[in-house]
Records
---
Amino acid sequence: KGVELSHHNIMAAAKAIDKLIPFGPGSRVISWLPAAHIAERMAHHYVPVVYAGTITCAPDPREILSYLPQVRPSWFFAVPRIWEKLKAGLEAMLAAQPEEQRAPLEDALQASLARVRLRQRREPVPEELEVKVAQADQQMFSKLRVMLGLDQLMAVNVGAAPTPVEVLEFFHALGIEVAELWGMSETCGVGACNRPGEIKIGTVGPAAPGAELRLGDDGELLVRGEFVMRGYRAAAEQTAEAIDPEGWLHTGDLGDIDADGYLTIVDRKKELIINSAGKNMSPANIEAAIKSASLLIGQACCIGDARPYNTALIVLDADYAPQWATAEGLEGTSLADLAREPKVIAAVQAGVDEANARLSRVEQIKKFTIVAGDWTPGGDELTPTMKLKRKPISAKYGAEIEAMYGG
């Protein structure tokens, strides 16, 4: 997009982050996201440089979870998919335990989840539940955090896409208080953030220090602050459209701000699906539900604008799908082979069914197509920061899309 960020912008953002999460010298982070991602630049480059942190560069981002115990980061930022995979892995590990070990773990987890939900509703937690969870944390959860390498966190965040509530609740129950935040390249990645100890699950938090947030008449999120970009390079017209005379950046995101000032992102203004019956839907939320329902699903693109029902293009997870296929005894393990494999199609259908159970009737996916191959950052389907290129996807896979609508 050609976002121009000045030294002043970056320093204003770094100061805002430091007020949220005070990093001392020697604080540890892992550099692992694409360098084109503003979260990578701010969290893993600029902030640790400014505040004398230690940066460990990950040689293979796909192995990020294996690096955590080696580094034991003070601050860890990851996209939702990482947390979804970690949750599924922990649940599989729990399910594989003998009954005498599994039962107390499951009981402790359910108790801790109950405590998380009571606290989120601002309801009193019974003393016996507090005691039970404290004992479980000492005997089980603290050891699990050490095993994962997440035992020395000052803060842990997720962003860049919607994160299912059940994923956030799961990690809170384990004592890993994953907090959603919101920002964009145009704001140096700063905008709203759930502060440690003040997290509202399902929101991206209140305005960050130095940020002003408000909603336009149509619900569009507007943000103002010293970290807002100077403009788009050599694009005066686009800059004038984005930043109004009063300095408000029109983000293109639709949001809602509650009575406590906590922001919830609905979706991108230009990406809302309006079906043929006039119903408005968020494709990002639908896609998040699909991806979180099955580790086989690496990417999903919801189609439904001006259509009678929703469909989806689904891409298999390039890391997990071949492993799953081998475990299932399948001969062909390439993504192209697996996209046509009946066992894979059935497993993906089960995931879609699970996602549909969490979606409203109008949001549900009626048909899907598994696309052969992978979608990689910077390719035809994904931006370098892993956002879907919806128009190019619709054009490239036009035949597959029309086939799902009887064309």
Note: The chain has two domains: 1-267, 272-404.
---
Amino acid sequence: MKTFTLEKGDVLITKDSETPDDIAVPAYVSQSLTNVICGYHLAHIKPVSIQSKYLFYAFISTQIASQFHISATGITRYGIGKSDIGNSLFLIPPIEEQEKIVEYLEQKTAEIKELKEKTLQQIEKLKEFKQILIAEAVTGKIKV
């Protein structure tokens, strides 16, 4: 059971899906989860000689994802096997470089997330303004 328990630093990827482009979608386990195990349709990866977050970001990359999309087999349900995962090709720089890459990606991801949140807030304010404007035009408070 310990083998299947989700621990901080594990990476999960979908190994089965209805479409090939949903294969190898990654998730990073950010904290150990006691009494939680990996489900059947997920591949549970416990990185040993590679930085966990680097592996997570590698799976997100188009280059790696496309390898799995191509190797997925099936008709109504697509899947990949352990050998597809083990035989995937991607660069593994030294740990120090992996850490720098992860740090850079984390920083850029945080910046993008912040910009997205600000944009969504602006959209909400514009929607509110639009509703107020419509209400004032309909009630004759402003001339059209």
Note: The chain has four helices and seven strands.
---
Amino acid sequence: MTLSVRNPATGAVIAEVEPDTPAIIADKLARARAARPAWAALPLEARLSTIARFRDRIVEQKEALARTLTRDMGKPITQARNELAATPGRLDFFLENTRAVLQD
């Protein structure tokens, strides 16, 4: 069985996907849980650097991401762009304040 992913604004099918089975979901959850200690063991600077690179990728890919949000969610392109424009600032807040919060 496949699931049709539709653009809610047009009803057009934009993808066909296979749903995950309970076993696949359990495996994904187990792998995520297994990865958590390695992430937690990384020095704070390494974790912050990873988040900063994620932020940079959002900035680099903002137009493609906006088009994806519009296609997948039926969201007006201006709204999608505005959401993406605000995201780096939110990440910057955490990048700038995490050290101080963790010192308390």
Note: The chain has two domains: 1-41, 42-104.
